[in-house]
Design brief:
The chain is α+β, with helices and mostly antiparallel strands and about 90 residues long. It contains two helices and four strands. The protein has one domain: Ribosomal protein S6/Translation elongation factor EF1B (Alpha-Beta Plaits).
């Protein structure tokens, strides 16, 4: 059917989490990541937003969220946008 681009927001466990280590672990776990950005939330806490390309054979974004939650330092992963690629 094609591929989709998904944007996910990942929240760290705390302000003390090393976001660079989390980003490296995400790149290793999800080779389809196209972009990674940090987004200030407040009081020193930053979320990580990623754009990832997902194929039909990967089962949507649920499997991506599950892989992200296995990474140490991540407390939540939420899909915030999904767009079909032409």
């Amino acid at each position: 059917m094609g591929k989709v681009a998904a944007v996910l927001r990942i929240m760290p466990d705390s302000v003390d989490v090393d976001l660079e280590k989390v980003k490296a672990a995400m790149k290793k776990a999800l080779p389809g990541i196209q972009e990674i950005r940090e987004e200030p939330i407040g009081f020193g806490l930053k979320a990580i937003k990623i754009a990832v390309v997902v194929g039909d054979d990967e089962g949507g974004t649920d499997s991506i969220e599950a892989k992200l939650l296995e990474i140490e330092g991540i407390s939540s992963a939420e899909t915030i946008a999904v767009n079909r690629m032409i």
